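User: For a teaching handout, I'd like to show students what a predicted protein-ligand complex looks like in token form. I'll give you the sequence and the SMILES for fe (ii) ion. Please answer with just the structure.
Assistant: Understood, here is the input followed by the structure.
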Amino acid sequence: MEDFSMNAEYRTGHELIDAQHLKVLVGLSQLYGELLRGKTKEELYGTVENLEALLKLHFFTEEAMLETLGCSGMDEMVAHDAVFLRHLQQVFSDYGENSTTETVDGLLFLKSWFVEHVRHVHKRCVQYANGIERMVGLRLDGTN
Ligand SMILES: [Fe+2]
């Protein structure tokens, strides 16, 4: 069984970003469970749409927060975020033509991709932002 839990390794130390990463993992897990229970493409529509909305909100939040800070690798992160969303749409637009097994494999590939990206690029950039926040005494997401 695939593990979708929020591993300590994925934590950035930024409350809002960590909460969003957790929501995305929960959304991926829900989709995985629904696929394994044999839901059809039509039945999955709402779950996929919800996950897409979560991802868009998260990527927008993270990119907006980091945009002016000059974190190296930021351009790569933005490009990867866009490609990730396209892959998610592709995996589920092909569901029906592709088998459930192929769709599950596509979803697990996306989950690994998300987790690896969180562990490396997202975590590094958010920790960089956390350092700047501490230096200037302000929260970049406006929560203080
Ligand atoms: Fe992120």
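For the handout, you might add this sentence: Residues 13-136 form a domain with the Four Helix Bundle (Hemerythrin (Met), subunit A) fold (CATH 1.20.120.50).
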